[in-house]
Design a protein that fits this description.
The structure holds three protein chains of three kinds. By secondary structure, chain A is of the alpha/beta class. Chain A contains twelve helices and nine strands. Chain A has two domains: 166 residues, no CATH class; 123 residues, no CATH class. Classes of the chains: A alpha/beta, B alpha/beta, C alpha/beta.
């Protein structure tokens, strides 16, 4: 069972350690059904920590971001650990970053929070429109209880959980130095219905679907910036020499951007769904990413972010890999 | 001039097998359509998948990547990596609505001049059937 | 120097080869309007001296700094024109070729189409030429020494050849003596030379050669570096005998409390030795070794009141305090001659090798027929009162070869002939012996092989075509169940002794050298050569060569030939003293690299390693290319998500303009 008091206690202990520089967790947001990433560095700050169905953000993104801050002149780099709260899906990002040596194991302290699924902001807002106050939420059996200003309301999980959570196969962290409470039973299974649905159409129908989505993209790059697996020092798609993608915002350039982004995640996407969550124009990016996740699973029996010892998919091969389309 | 649509195919060939095979097709004076133009790279494993996206964007109606047969790579394993990448890229392209015939891959060895002729014929035919590529072609191209 | 591109384009007619189908004048006119193009010329044969002179003159007079030659395939004349550029004082890598012959004029008939395509190809070449960068071929010095791993006949021959050419050789052998498998053989096919007679002089030569440092009972621990400059670390295992003092007299072995109680590896376990031993009488070096796993003193800390060997040794050579020693040295080339293991017949349980004493392997029979073997050359089975001379003897061929069920699809190449040889020796040693050979095929392909096979058959040895399915015991006899496939008759053949002609397999410890030298294995698990036909002794790692059965099964003449080939390849490098390093190699932009290590995984040459650098004060890992190891395939560049890895002359920013031209031009 989720036990926030225990979480706070572990956070206090962790942050008191000499070899931990800060802890990244969640706290209640300032309005609506939101949690916000929370960087804490003193035991007192643990009081504000939460773990609830609102904790959507994948905090693993910050592991690689933090490394990019310049060290002030005359100072030594702080080599202490970063403590990180992870849900099951977030933990896969940590594993994949380890596989790709984006982070080193001894620099991160993973605090695992077995999770029962987080909300889809948009579903909840549709149910409770115009809520301005900060609303907290808890899991209760098969419901999520929202503590609205007018009193608590229980909603079946099925109605408010994010799509990725409904099919989740990894609610429990796959890597953790400490797990805060007992693991939860796995409820989801995934046969990629959403992907198959689109595959069934003709090329014209498929392009019709994506053309509309990509046309609406305004290239804010939120999807890239939030992604825990997009941590290049300098994104190749931003470069001017060579310029892979023009700056102009139009369907051709947007499509090329999204294809490149999706391809760079082939065999790496751990399906946390952050890209889709943050997209301001609601492009179903997971529908794109999941196509490759599905192919990677079907063709190469490979699942990223599960085994820290695995070789990256695109940096390995088998002599008998399928090649039925090759002339 | 004929009004029939003539596709534009960009091909990436590895230096050691496919490019040599294409040379052999020439030396043996076989004839094939002139729609396909070759960019030589040292290994099919050098071909960045984004080249394919870029070629489609920049006016190609079809793209071909060709390398040594599996196990024959001059650099031992480049074509194995290429095979994985392009298997996935092809799935992705088709998924967003690029016609199946537009992107092709082939294994052509240095002794397969005749196969090269067939491959050119095949990919040209497929690109012709698919018609002019419009989906995400760049409106104005300057290099 | 102002390096703004000034491009010269040279369109070759190639006699009529190009000019017949391509309107070269139209191409010339088209090229003259392309950006940065200063000079365009047509010429009948650009590769001729006058053609090349055109380029040289224009470079001088017009100040050209990039050259595009539209002619035949770069596979044909790229080097020719590179030299032209060099002669004109330009960097040879400022050249780009448009292949308008093999891939244009020769494959298209329509003049209009061919001309249009030629224009496109020239445009694409110009687009790339504008962005070419000068490249420089570096040279590295070659350390004038060689490492030979493995002291069998392959290693011995390679070491002698290199040493005789005047270069230092370090010969590393894992066991206490050189000689390898060949020293275990009695006679060699098809000439029936005595194996020891032809081998031992070479073994002695190795030990006495002033240029050879023999490191017996030693193992290669680590090799780093690259062609011309390998740093080698070798572990000299403790023999517990001071080799400088040991005279090889053998009194210690006579005195050893375990004398005659330890199976001798050399005699395939059929003979017995002491805990302090010389593997075989002609061993080189003729120095004794204490087996640390058997010696009572070394395993239990106690051997009676005092170790008898030490008491007996008048030279005072026994030293139980001896430690392993690490030797480090530098070499320019490495030859891998680690040999093979014989197939373990217990993996074919139907042949009963583990169950019946009278089922032997070929190598075991080899020791039995050898005059220096455990029985003094008499073929005797059983011990004491039960000893007997077998009369009915059957050989079974292809045990562990050409057999998918044990994972060995290949032919071991020597079993057909060693079977014939052993059958002949058995006939010779046991008058009236009844010898038959069960076979799938007889492959007598070598010099003198067919003649020998013929001779053996004429001597009365029966060849029966059939692959036995089972061996079991009936009374004192072994029964072979088999179908004679030529007569289509099932047989149950009662014999006294069965000899399994076991095949050759990669050594069980083959992995060690793979990890040390980054070698690859072919499908049969032997070490992989760089090219099966044209580079059969080279490996993917420059400066590392293969000799003998480490690369695949072969007989002694082939092994020696390959060893000489490997030695000669090594000598090419050693005697020139310098090695050129490719120019079109990869590099990694350390400012943008994120250190994911994909390139490290992918590089087939192990040319990239992750190093830690400081980026804005933070320690970060980035990939770094070892220029001497990189062969310029560009695999790293395609794998790199951040575009940090690039291949010189094939950089993304050079290829994208080519794509644009070919895409846009209709």
């Amino acid at each position: 069972m989720v036990n926030v008091d225990k979480l706070k206690e572990i956070a206090r202990e962790t942050i008191s350690r000499d070899d931990v520089k800060y802890l990244i967790g969640w706290r209640q947001g300032t309005y609506g059904f939101r949690a916000a990433p929370y960087f804490m560095s003193t035991p007192e700050e643990a009081e504000e920590l939460i773990f609830s169905p609102l904790c959507t953000n994948n905090l693993a993104t910050y592991l690689t971001l933090a490394e990019k801050l310049p060290v002030p002149r005359g100072q030594e780099p702080d080599s202490r650990k970063v403590a990180l709260l992870v849900k099951g899906c977030d933990s896969r990002a940590v594993v994949q970053q380890l596989v790709e040596q984006g982070i080193s194991r001894e620099r991160v302290l993973v605090i695992g929070c077995p999770c029962r699924g987080v909300i889809d902001q948009k579903k909840v807002e549709a149910k409770f429109p115009d809520v301005r106050e900060a609303v907290s939420a808890v899991w209760d059996g098969d419901t999520v209880v929202f503590n609205l200003p007018g009193g608590s309301v229980a909603v079946p999980r099925q109605e408010v959980l994010a799509g990725k959570c409904l099919t989740c196969r990894y609610p429990n962290p796959v890597i953790a130095d400490v797990t805060v409470w007992e693991e939860v039973a796995v409820w989801g299974s995934d046969d990629y219905v959403d992907v198959r649905e689109l595959e069934a159409g003709s090329p014209q129908q498929r392009w019709g679907f994506w053309e509309e989505k990509f046309a609406s993209c305004m290239r804010c790059y939120s999807c890239r910036n939030v992604c825990p697996m997009c941590y290049c020092e300098d994104c190749v798609l931003d470069r001017l020499n060579p310029q892979w993608i023009m700056r102009s915002v139009n369907t051709a350039e947007n499509t090329a951007f999204h294809l490149a982004r999706a391809f760079h995640l082939a065999g790496r996407c751990i399906e946390c769904g952050e890209c889709e969550r943050v997209c301001p124009v609601d492009i179903p990016l997971m529908k794109l990413n999941r196509k490759l996740t599905k192919e990677v699973r079907d063709k190469y029996a490979y699942e990223p972010g599960v085994d820290p010892e695995a070789k990256p998919l695109q940096a390995s091969y088998r002599p008998d890999d399928k090649e039925d389309f090759i002339l | 001039m004929s009004t029939e649509f003539e596709p534009n195919v960009v091909a990436f060939l590895c230096n050691w097998c496919s490019y040599a095979g294409a040379d052999l097709a020439g030396t043996s004076r076989t004839h094939y359509p002139s729609n396909l133009n070759v960019i030589r790279v040292m290994c099919s494993g050098r071909v960045n998948p984004l080249y394919v996206v870029n070629a489609l964007q920049q006016g190609a109606d079809g793209v071909l990547v060709s390398g040594c047969h599996p196990g024959d790579c001059h650099y031992m394993e480049g074509n194995f990596y290429a095979r994985r990448r392009f298997t996935l890229l092809r799935e992705l392209l088709e998924y967003v609505g690029v016609e199946p015939g537009r992107f092709n891959m082939s294994w052509v060895s240095a002794s397969e001049g005749a196969k090269w002729k067939d491959v050119v014929g095949e990919v040209t035919k497929k690109a012709k059937e698919a018609g002019p590529f419009k989906q995400f072609r760049r409106a104005k191209i300057n290099w | 120097m102002n390096n703004k591109p000034k491009i010269g384009v040279y369109v070759c007619h190639c006699g009529v080869n190009i000019a017949r189908t391509v309107d070269v004048e139209a191409v010339r006119e088209f090229a003259s309007r392309l950006p940065n193009v200063k000079v365009v010329r047509n010429y009948a044969y650009m590769c001729s001296d006058p053609g090349q002179l055109l380029i040289r003159d224009d470079v001088e007079k017009e100040g050209l700094n990039r050259i595009v030659v539209a002619s035949c395939s770069p596979r044909m004349h790229e080097n020719t024109f590179r030299k032209t550029l060099a002669a004109a004082g330009l960097n040879p890598y400022y050249l780009e070729m448009a292949n308008i012959r093999e891939q244009c004029s020769w494959v298209h008939e329509d003049r209009e189409e061919a001309t249009a395509k030629a224009k496109k190809l020239v445009y694409a070449a110009v687009a790339k030429a504008r962005l070419l960068e000068p490249l420089y071929e570096k040279e590295v010095e070659v350390e004038p020494a060689s490492l030979v791993i493995g002291g069998g006949i392959a290693g011995i021959q390679a070491a002698l050849d290199i040493a005789n050419a005047g270069f230092k050789v370090y010969l590393v052998e894992k066991t206490p003596s050189v000689g390898g498998r060949m020293s275990q053989l009695d006679k060699t096919f098809p000439t029936l030379d005595c194996s020891a007679c032809i081998l031992t002089p070479k073994m002695v030569d190795v030990a006495n050669h002033p240029n050879i440092e023999l490191l017996a009972y030693s193992q290669v621990e680590d090799i780093s570096g690259y062609v011309g400059n390998f740093d080698v670390k070798v572990r000299k295992k403790a023999r517990y005998v001071d080799v400088d003092k040991c005279t090889g007299c053998g009194i210690c072995a006579e005195e050893c409390r375990l004398k005659g109680r330890i199976p001798s590896e050399f005699d395939m376990g059929m003979g017995k030795r002491s805990a302090i031993y010389l593997p075989f009488p002609q061993a080189v070096p003729a120095k004794y070794t204490i087996d640390p796993e058997r010696c009572l003193y070394l395993t239990r800390g106690k051997c009676g009141k005092s170790p008898k060997c030490a008491d007996a040794c008048t030279a005072g050579a026994i030293n139980f305090e001896q430690q392993d020693e690490i030797v480090e040295f530098k070499v320019g080339t490495v030859i891998v001659a680690t040999g093979f293991d014989t197939f373990d017949p217990t993996r074919k349980p139907e042949y009963g090798y583990a169950d019946y004493d009278n089922v032997l392997t070929g190598l075991e029979l080899e020791r039995l027929v050898s005059a220096s073997g455990p029985t003094g050359g008499n073929i005797v089975l059983g011990e004491g009162e039960n000893a007997f001379v077998p009369k009915d003897i059957a050989f079974i061929k292809c045990v562990g070869s050409r057999d998918k069920s044990v994972g060995n699809e290949y032919c071991s190449r020597v079993c057909c002939m060693y079977t014939a040889k052993l059958a002949h020796l058995v006939e010779e040693k046991i008058p009236g012996a009844n010898v038959r050979i069960y076979y799938m095929d007889v492959r007598a392909f070598g010099k003198g092989f067919e003649e020998f096979y013929d001779r053996v058959r004429r001597e009365g040895i029966r060849y029966i075509r059939g692959n036995p399915s089972e061996i079991f015991k009936r009374g004192d006899k072994l029964v072979i169940k088999v179908e004679d496939t030529l007569a289509a008759t099932p047989l149950e053949d009662e014999v006294d002794m069965v000899v399994l002609a076991v095949g050759l397999e990669p050594r069980k410890d083959a992995r060690e050298i793979i990890d040390i030298l980054r070698l690859s294995q072919s499908a049969d698990r032997f070490y992989l050569e760089a090219h099966p036909k044209l580079a059969p002794v080279d490996t993917a790692t420059d400066g590392v060569f293969l000799a003998g059965c480490a690369q695949g099964p072969k007989d002694i003449p082939d092994t020696v030939a390959q060893a000489k080939g490997a030695a000669s390849s090594a000598l090419v490098l050693l005697s020139s003293g310098k090695v050129k390093i490719q120019a079109q190699i990869s590099f990694i932009n350390e400012n943008t690299c994120r250190g994911c290590g994909y390139c490290v995984e992918i590089c087939p040459y192990g040319a990239i390693e992750l190093v830690t650098i400081s980026r804005m004060g933070n320690p970060v890992q980035v990939g770094r290319v070892n220029e001497a190891l990189c062969k310029g395939c560009g695999a790293c560049a395609a794998a790199c998500f951040s575009g940090s890895a690039q291949q010189k002359s094939f950089m993304d920013r050079q290829i994208l303009p080519q794509i644009a031209v070919l895409g846009v031009m209709r």
